[in-house]
């Protein structure tokens, strides 16, 4: 199962858009929950005028049996105090559906990094203990950096370290709950800031592709992702030429 966290810059959701659009995944259902703000809109992955009128809602499920891949796309923010009920419902679904692994795409505020997190790549990963046993060695081979823990009380007690993901939405809660339930979960995240987060989405999607090999990469290692039709108006329509 591949899914986004509703986090800073919506980077995880945008990266999921790239995966669904590129792999031409089929919508197989909805994830019904009262934890998300209700919404409805046109098909974000329209390829023809006919299917552009299909409706989409706040949480939908897509599948690609050939790659044993299921994707949950989330398109609206969480209702206040609904994080924990959502996590409980989601993980119950994961267990009942017998998902082998869960991969959560997320992001975190770049301006809240500590000194150690400022070094090297802005991409990080986390693995639950059960998944660490299976793929921990591969992450080392890929030379990936694990998300660092930070001081619980900076400047007062620097020895006590905690996991801190500011701007990460449900990321920390979902990860810690998966650890306690023995669910194999990986978190892939990018430090970023709010703005035009399309480059961050491409970076996170490429990061995911390094591991799962969902699509072939070019010689320069940049994967060939297909931009969904909904992105044309992501930052509004263009300026009319008559105004220049």
From TrEMBL:
Entries under InterPro entries matching the protein: Proteasome_assmbl_chaperone_2, Proteasome_assmbl_chp_2_euk, PSMG2_sf
GO cellular component entries: cytosol; nucleus
Keyword check for Signal: no
Domain of life (superkingdom): Eukaryota
Swiss-Prot/TrEMBL GO biological process terms: proteasome assembly
Principal place of residence: nucleus
Localization per Swiss-Prot or TrEMBL: Nucleus
Pfam families to which the protein is assigned, alphabetical: PAC2
Keywords: Chaperone, Nucleus, Phosphoprotein
Family: Belongs to the PSMG2 family.
Cited function: Chaperone protein which promotes assembly of the 20S proteasome as part of a heterodimer with PSMG1. The PSMG1-PSMG2 heterodimer binds to the PSMA5 and PSMA7 proteasome subunits, promotes assembly of the proteasome alpha subunits into the heteroheptameric alpha ring and prevents alpha ring dimerization.
Description of how the protein assembles with itself and partners: Forms a heterodimer with PSMG1. The PSMG1-PSMG2 heterodimer interacts directly with the PSMA5 and PSMA7 proteasome alpha subunits.
Protein name: Proteasome assembly chaperone 2
């Amino acid at each position: 199962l591949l899914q986004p966290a509703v986090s800073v810059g919506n980077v995880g959701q945008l990266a999921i858009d790239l995966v669904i659009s590129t792999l031409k995944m089929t919508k197989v259902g909805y994830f019904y929950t009262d934890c998300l703000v209700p919404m409805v809109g046109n098909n974000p992955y329209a390829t023809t005028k006919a299917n552009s009128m299909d409706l989409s809602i706040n949480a939908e499920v897509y599948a690609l049996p050939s790659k044993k891949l299921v994707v949950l796309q989330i398109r609206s923010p969480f209702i206040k105090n609904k994080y924990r009920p959502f996590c409980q419902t989601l993980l119950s679904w994961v267990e009942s559906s017998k998902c082998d692994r869960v991969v959560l795409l997320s992001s975190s505020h770049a301006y809240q990094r500590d000194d150690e997190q400022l070094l090297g790549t802005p991409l990080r990963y986390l693995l639950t203990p059960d998944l660490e046993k299976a793929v921990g060695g591969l992450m080392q081979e890929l030379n990936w950096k694990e998300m660092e823990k930070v001081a619980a009380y900076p400047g007062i007690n620097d020895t006590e370290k905690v996991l801190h993901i500011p701007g990460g939405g449900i990321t920390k809660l979902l990860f810690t709950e998966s650890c306690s339930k023995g669910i194999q979960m990986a978190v892939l995240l990018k430090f970023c800031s709010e703005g035009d987060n399309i480059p961050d989405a491409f970076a996170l999607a490429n990061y995911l592709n390094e591991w799962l090999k969902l699509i072939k990469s070019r010689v320069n290692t940049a994967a060939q992702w297909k931009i969904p039709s909904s992105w044309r108006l992501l930052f509004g329509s263009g300026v009319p030429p008559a105004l220049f």
